[in-house]
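Hello support,

Our group uses your service weekly, and this is the first time we've seen a run hang past the timeout. The protein is Esterase EstC, putative. I'm not sure whether the cause is the sequence or the server load. Input pasted verbatim:
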Amino acid sequence: MARFLLVHGASHGAWCWRDVVPALTALGHSATAIDLPSHGADPTPAAAIGLQDYIDAILAALPEPAIVVAHSMAGVPATGAADRAPASVQRLVYLCAYRPEDGDSVASLRRAQTEQPLLTAIRRDPDGTTFRFDAAMAPELFYHDCSPADRAFALDRLVPQAIRPQAEPVTLTGAIASVPRSYILCSEDRAIPPRDQQRMAAALADDEVYERPWSHSPFLAHPEALASLLSGIAAP
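Update from on-call engineer: The timeout came from a worker crash unrelated to the input. Re-ran successfully.
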């Protein structure tokens, strides 16, 4: 069976995969979720990190090759990690995630979107190194198809997001082309517009794009279905 490494998006942490890890385990796989620097239980100050720190954290969590599942923002550092060490990434799965080309950043990909649903919800912190998502707007942006309990679980755990890792461009050598890649397109996503997901997924083969009627957070709203889909993607 497959080995999975699950990488969270902006302001989230390993906690968001709470229900997916046991669902994958029940299907016979092994799964590990990590906290990127300054997220979850990781104590690194947000002011001290850049994109390379995210990339290094992903690579450090790959002592053995695995299928890397990158959610949202994590698509950029996960692509950087796969490009740097393609033998360590058996497959890269973008879960409603930003898929960069050389020189792209999370910020540049967001600015290129046809719509900007996140822009009005971003609140820059006074120190200028982090931002937060407006607590009143986050439920509809990220968790509109989640249960009230799961919504509260997530909102209680969101952390300030470091700006520098999102602003810095990723450098790709071309080695990423040797890594099999898949895209899970969430057609009910209110954070990254589905039409922009379609545009980013268009570079992949049609049979590597999987569309589901999910929000931006299927790991909470549909964990068993997501695990089943990932299991199918992992099958030879």
